[in-house]
TrEMBL record:
Name of protein: 1-phosphofructokinase
Organism encoding this protein: Streptomyces cavernicola
Taxonomic placement: Bacteria, Bacillati, Actinomycetota, Actinomycetes, Kitasatosporales
Family (UniProt): Belongs to the carbohydrate kinase PfkB family.
Domain of life per record: Bacteria
Matches recorded under SUPFAM superfamilies: Ribokinase-like
Length: 315
């Protein structure tokens, strides 16, 4: 079982529009509603793979009820923590050329009691979990040290932690030695405070995160592939992708694939790459099933192309 923690979940509404004309009345040609948040997406990807997952998340108001209902419909067990504020609703406007305009709400402010209730629920429901995946931004009311506290408590209980967050929350949590952290290129550059122009730059940055406490770093480099840097060195994975339809949730699908495959080593990296490549070829935030995966398109090597320039360098 993979338990996910999403401190700031959302109800995501996506509207397909012919064009985004500012100041005009726009009539949608299609729409959908999904439960949102990085940890929620990891649970959705795990469930799509036919594996057991439990989603722990604070929920409030009618949007929170809808998030729980949508997750249950996808076969995901939900452990809700009731909060006084209303779960945020996010809006995405998708144009035919692939452009996506997103409006993300701030979300509710959690009280000290609600923060502690969230930590306690993770503790109470984590028995038997192969991994605890803590993902996404922190809502108002939670200090940057909140993830660090969660990692410390989880490790004290014998659980393994995968952390996908950024900024001060990531840096604060590193001191508690999360088992794997999963930054993208932009988050990796932010963490080390310098630009990344090559794959080698990303490897060096990942090694610095390990020096700060991360036991392993799984870094998404967008179209260039993914890096895994751990006690066994560095491995680089990439995959052939025919057509990119949407990158929404692709990183979350990658993390799910990594954890499903055991969460360590080149085989887990290959699973991460396969899941991420499958996700970008699906519409919206649809998560891939085993039938969508193409392992033969994936290459993983210890001969990391250090001098390769990143397709989208981070300044």
């Amino acid at each position: 079982m993979i338990l996910t923690v999403t401190p700031n979940p959302s109800l995501d509404r996506t509207y397909e529009v012919p064009a985004l004309d500012r100041g005009e009345v726009i009539r949608a040609t299609g729409d959908r509603m999904d439960p949102g948040g990085k940890g929620v997406n990891v649970s959705r990807a795990v469930a799509a793979a036919g594996r057991h997952t439990l989603a722990v998340l604070p929920l409030g108001g009618a949007p929170g009820d809808l998030v729980a209902e949508l997750l249950c419909e996808q076969g995901i067990e939900v452990a809700p923590v009731a909060v006084a504020g209303q779960t945020r609703s996010n809006i995405s406007l998708a144009e035919p050329d692939g452009a996506l305009t997103k409006v993300n709400a701030a979300g509710p402010e959690l009280s000290a009691a609600e923060s502690e209730a969230l930590l306690a629920t993770v503790r109470d429901r984590s028995a038997g979990a192969a991994w605890i995946a803590c993902c996404g931004s922190l809502p108002r009311g939670l200090q940057p040290s909140w993830y660090a506290e969660l990692v410390a408590r989880a490790h004290a209980a014998g659980a393994r932690i995968a952390l996908d967050t950024s900024g001060p929350a990531l840096l604060a949590a590193l001191r508690e030695r999360p088992d794997v952290v999963k930054p993208n290129a932009e988050e990796l550059a932010e963490a080390v405070g310098r630009p990344l122009a090559t794959v080698g730059d990303a490897v060096k940055a990942a090694e610095e995160l390990r020096q700060l406490g991360a036991r392993a770093v799984l870094a998404s480099l967008g179209a260039d592939g993914q890096l895994l840097v751990d006690d066994f060195g560095a491995h680089f994975g990439s995959a052939r992708v025919e057509t990119v339809r949407s990158n929404v949730g692709a990183g979350d699908s990658s993390l799910a694939g990594f954890l499903i495959a055991g969460g360590s080593g080149p085989e887990a990296l290959a699973s991460a790459v396969a899941h991420g490549a499958a996700a970008v070829q699906l519409p919206g935030s649809v998560m891939p099933t085993p039938a969508d995966l193409n392992p033969s398109a994936v290459t993983v090597t210890a001969d990391v192309p250090l001098d390769r320039a990143l397709t989208e360098p981070v300044s």
